[in-house]
Fold each of these.
Amino acid sequence: MKQETILKARTKLAAALPSTTEILRGSLLHRRIRHRSGCAVCAKGPGHPVWVLTVSYPGGRTKQISLSAEQKVLVQQWLRNYRKLKDTLERICELNLQLLRPEKNA
Ligand SMILES: [Zn+2]
């Protein structure tokens, strides 16, 4: 790629970056909570569905948070934003790498 093409591609990627504030790292899991006794719902049904956000840290540490249905929608959006932000930053880095080491006859 020509230098000019790389610079244009870089600008285009940067302009399409998602929000840098509404982001969240982690995974969304669907679980069911079952009460052992005293719950009519669990006694005759499959329990209570819950959404859990799991965030892992270096060293194997994790944090888990139960989410309300409303929060789940928000969290899904924030997780998408984070992934897109990360992917886009990675692509910009690759372009910058090409700027440092242009291929011959490109
Ligand atoms: Zn229950």
Amino acid sequence: MTPFRVTATDGNARAGVLTTAHGEVPTPVFMPVGTKATVKTLDPDEVRDLGARIILGNTYHLFFRPGDELIRDLGGLHRFMGWSGPILTDSGGFQVFSLRDTIARVDDDGVTFRSVYDGAPTRFTPELSARIQANLGSDVAMCLDHVPPVGIPRRKLEDAVRRTTEWARRQRHAERAEGQLRFGITQGGVDEELRRRSTEEIAELDFDGNAIGGLAIGEDRGAMFEATDRAAALMPAGKPRYFMGIGDPEGVLEVIEAGVDMFDCVLPTRTARTGSALTREGRLNLRNARYARDQGPLDEGCACPACRRFTRAYIRHLVNQREVLGLRLLSVHNLRFLVDLASGARAAIERGAFASYKRDWLERLT
Ligand SMILES: [Zn+2]
């Protein structure tokens, strides 16, 4: 059985369906991030009702707290967190390498670092990442990758590419949960040749899907989109393509246009924590005094529970008083915003109208 099928194309953009052990996922799809086995402040039913079809879990954090073996013993991550839909777990690589001060040593076997929780020395290898994700029982497991920072010398970027392929080769044969899909991750920054090399090497290993890693971490945006265009074009057309970590509307539309099928970002919940709403007219900071008497919804075009029922003035009040409900309503709305953006893109691709869908969005946002 092939886990992915493309159902429509429009230019390079595609609509498709990813089939997992816990259900089908129509693409393009935005995946809410549930780092610590929770999409922050939301009940799984709320996450499902706002249209999310697949969520992310985090290997790094769940390994330390509460522990992947505990979760396995309690029936796996789905049962543990009360979410019956598909779950994708990242490999832990991004967290290890973005908590740069905690890294003790990177070598070809793995990476040694101090836990962000208690400083305990820890070593991640491709085999351990596979085992943690097998214990969690996610539907899609990711390969451990070496994520270098922006602006390192090319020689070091090349090292990261080589190591990422080597680790992927090992993880390919490592354990996995029953029915669990496994995606490879490419590196190479915005370097054309290295990104190409990484993409070809990972594609050759024949994973169930392929991800673009190591972008959207502070490099020039134009260069990032060019690198994404080139990388997506080199990825196998019959497999899902996942851009790791993008959530601003412009970025999302750009990567979908390049042929990306899946993406995730903490932006919706992080933005909520700053008291801001993502809207079709741009970002709205509820702390601004101009909303004190505003009787309108967060976003005129949105049908989420927060917009159907509550005014900007009320949500502004909750945000200013640091009431939990304010955070929850903003999270619901912001997640719905991205879920809608992706499902709208899917519908536009099916109509052959993605270009005008994107143009309309960008005109309103600017
Ligand atoms: Zn809304």
